[in-house]
Amino acid sequence: MSDTKHLEDLVIQVRRDILRMVHKVNSGHPGGSLGCTEFFVALYNKIMDRKDSFEMDGIGEDIFFLSNGHISPVFYSVLARAGYFPVEELSTFRLIDSRLQGHPTTHEGLPGVRVASGSLGQGMSVALGAALAKKLNNDNHLVYSLHGDGELQEGQNWEAIMYAAGNNVDNIIATIDLNGQQIDGPTDVVLPMGNLKEKFEAFGWDVVEINQGNNLEEIIKGMAVAKNKTGKGKPVCVMLKTVMGNGVDFMMHTHAWHGKAPNDEQLEKGLAQNAETLGDY
Questions:
Q1: Structurally, how many domains does the chain consist of?
Q2: Is 224 contained in some domain?
Q3: Is 281 inside a domain boundary?
Q4: CATH code, domain with 251
């Protein structure tokens, strides 16, 4: 199987995982998870220089922090299918005593997860701390992070963004999921943030735009450009334009599926659009 075909099949299988996980417990966030599926698949299978085994300190490898932790279904699915923990464990999503809670946490020692997240606005600060630690350790690997566009309405982000440029933290690539939706509606309706690219540039960051954020090849190409900009004195931001609910037609282009699980009929419809490729858990 070609590498591209495997990645495409993995994207479809991860979508199935997301739908089945949130349906089983009638709880979770499918919209943003589906919108970022291609990004996660590319990140963990093509972009990051990571070890197969998990070590919390992450020395000698690229590491990732999920700031918008509510999209945990896609994170868990990709981690499991990358070999961090058994794929069968996805069936325990959000159950009592499960390691796979609604927001990722380190409390139960879940491989692949280095920080509890979900309290929006904090991930940028955490990622910067890790990036600075890598510099102190003379570790030339990178720190990647993902943030929601609505999440940038939180002020702590902008303190961290200002700090990163002011201190030449140039070993970080922070990706913004630009789907234009948040739980209460379109971001431009809830609280318009203007031109985010210009804002990051004004704060002293290099910015890369990926206008087809649900296209694997475009993601891989754009992230390579971002990686080439690291180590040059500026932090790097990627503007990833995605479609919320991508791959399931009735979930796309709307905030309605930000935090709502499909019913039985909707699950079957969504799964029919994403035929099993690599095996359900």
A1: 1
A2: yes
A3: no
A4: 3.40.50.970
Pairing verdict, β 181-182 and 185-186: antiparallel
For the stretch 11-52, pLDDT in tens is 999 999 999 999 999 999 999 999 999 999 999 999 999 999
**pTM value surpassing 0.90:** yes
**Which residues, at least 6 apart from 10, have a Cβ–Cβ distance to it below 8 Å?**
41, 45, 81, 277, 278
Question: Which class for 199: exposed (0-12), middle (13-18), buried (19 or more C-beta within 10 A)?
Answer: middle
Q: Provide the token pair at 143.
A: 């720190």
The average pLDDT across 101-118 equals: 94
Name the E strands within 169-264.
Answer: 172-178, 181-182, 185-186, 206-210, 236-241
User: Cα(174)–Cα(207) distance, rounded to whole angstroms?
Assistant: 10
Distance CA 165, CA 96 (A): 42
Helices H / strands E in the chain, number of each: 10, 7
Tell me whether residue 278 is in a domain.
Answer: no
Which residue range(s) make up the domain with 104? Answer: 3-272
What does the pLDDT look like over 216-234, one tens digit per residue? 999 999 999 999 999 999 9
